[in-house]
Specification:
416 residues; alpha+beta; DNA polymerase, domain 1; Dna Ligase, domain 1; 6-stranded antiparallel beta sheet; 5-stranded mixed beta sheet; 16 helices; 14 strands; 40% helix; 20% strand
Length: 416
Amino acid sequence: MSIDSRTILHMDLDSFFVSIERLKDPSLLDKPVIVGGVGARGVVSSCSYEARKYGVHSAMAGGKAHQLCPHGIFLPGDSAAYSKYSRMVTQIIADTAPLFEKASIDEFYVDLTGMDRYFGEYKWSSELRQKIIRETGLPISFGLSVNKMMAKMATNHAKPNGQFMIERGREQDFLDPQPVGKIPFVGEKLEESLKRMNIHTIYELRMMPVENLIKIFGKTGTMLWNRARGISDSPVANFREEKSVSVERTFDSDTTDIEFLQSALFVLTEKLSYDLRKLNKLTGCVTVKVRYDDFTTTSKQHTVDYSLSSKYLIERSADLFKELYDTSRQVRLIGVRFSQLINSNMQFDLFNDRAEENSLYKAIDAVKGKYGTSKLILARGIDMGNVKRNNDVSGEMREEVNRETSKSSVNKPPKD
């Protein structure tokens, strides 16, 4: 089946954090609501359309947001609620969709190719959208088109709380008058570069010879040339193929030293959190594994708020270890696994005003990325020795872990 014969649905929850805050407090409806940016060094993670009219946007410094919209309602955010509702929407889609991808905490793709002969793709999408609205109370928009890029652009056209289909064969008619900044992943800097070349619309971009674009932008030039023509072959990644990252440590000698074991767990979780941020992922489930001296192995997992925070994930793994560990037995190995991975996005990374924590992670990660993970160790992790790492997203263990995870059906989020 050719790529052009596909039908892809893109769904995006509108002002996701703000919408949940309004569910909790209906008095916030029609008011300029800003999630994040509360403290002096805070950062805006999300804002309502009413606040956007004043120039407020995500990733903006809280001080600037206060200047632009002094009468705005600033809220600290609620990661537990956001994770809860994200999982609710995921479950509704999982119960209905033949093949879907959770692109981020509030964004989904569904491959509906071939459905038209049975039901009607637009009608099916409309009913799914209404079901999500009815069961969660959240506004959601969707776009329908021949590939993921076009579907995402259709969704952006439909917002807020709407739906739009780009009819097959009319993709170029839709694209040509659009500003180049409407192309997904064309950021402000790239848009400004194009404008300096007197390229303001997608039509003007389409008229540029591909050789010129490659000469100026390199590989990005090829991407621009393709996207100006609506060409995108990115597949919908099956959410059933649960990705995970894991790390474990086998000790030189078996031990019951609780402080040593807790410190080792601390190091493993901190290392895995670094891997998570490198992959630009959030985890929704933490698993701790303990192998005793007689080689019996036990594990315990728990669904958590979506996160890439070392501090939060270390606390969750410590809680699991406390519940799991039999203090009367000697330990041979401990391990940590993060699963239910989804793509991170700037909104969630900046959530809850963690400006100082985010800055610390960036500094630590920069040092590790340049000099190696062993060159910067948090105080509690000194002298923990070597760590064996498994990672199904990259590395030598990929095939083994993929075979393991593909056997289980994880379309539904696992229970605690």
